[in-house]
Design goal:
The chain is of the alpha+beta class and 193 residues long. It contains four helices and eight strands, in the order βαββββαβββαα. It has an eight-stranded antiparallel barrel with strand order 1-5-4-3-2-6-7-8.
């Protein structure tokens, strides 16, 4: 399954929450604690993620652990904003310890930790997540899943994403072109100086 998504900075959380309450269906709260692992290889790198996720929905509370590998691609819109097109491979695991030992033994190192506190909403076929990403602030992520990633499908989904963003009252200029990983690493480097 392909994720076609964008994320945008949220400058007025309360105003966005009001729009979401009017236009979307609330699906619950999740806290996602991510550990990013990185293996440097041939001048590039391979990365993966272990996510510990705690959720609270109307069905109750739950905890899960996921292992994720993504092939990521960024595509620009006509005005220079970007959407992500991710070929995501994910599975749930019963525990993280064996996988962490395997990653260490094969040369992976922990690159960073990330915590997202997420309110999830459903709008048509899209999943909207109002996220507090520590230490970066609030973002709105809008994601549509697709079994295919041909140019026509991606263009159609991209238009849907931008229309939803507009409905939420967020201008396209607030779309963030970098991955959270990059933003957190940049912030960590600037703190070290």
């Amino acid at each position: 399954m392909y994720e076609i998504e964008l994320k945008a900075h949220v400058r007025d959380k309360e105003a966005l929450e009001e729009k979401l309450k009017k236009n979307a269906i609330y699906r619950g709260f999740r806290e996602k604690k991510d550990t990013y692992w990185k293996l440097t290889k041939n001048g590039g790198f391979i990365s993966c993620r272990i996510r510990e996720e705690n959720s609270e929905t109307k069905e109750g509370k739950d905890s899960e652990i996921f292992f994720t590998y993504k092939r990521k691609e960024i595509r620009a819109t006509e005005n220079g904003a970007t959407i992500e097109l991710n070929d995501e491979k994910e599975c749930s695991i019963s525990g993280k310890e064996a996988l962490e030992v395997f990653l260490q033994d094969t040369g992976f190192k922990i690159e960073l930790y990330k915590t997202k506190k997420v309110s999830q909403w459903e709008y048509g076929e899209a999943l909207l997540e109002l996220c507090l990403v520590e230490p970066l602030g609030y973002f709105l992520e809008i994601e549509i899943l697709s079994p295919v990633n041909d140019p026509e499908t991606v263009e159609n989904k991209k238009k849907q994403l931008l229309e939803i963003l507009k409905t939420c009252g967020i201008p396209e200029t607030e779309i963030e072109n970098k991955y959270y990983r990059e933003l957190i690493l940049e912030q960590n480097i600037s703190r070290e100086k």
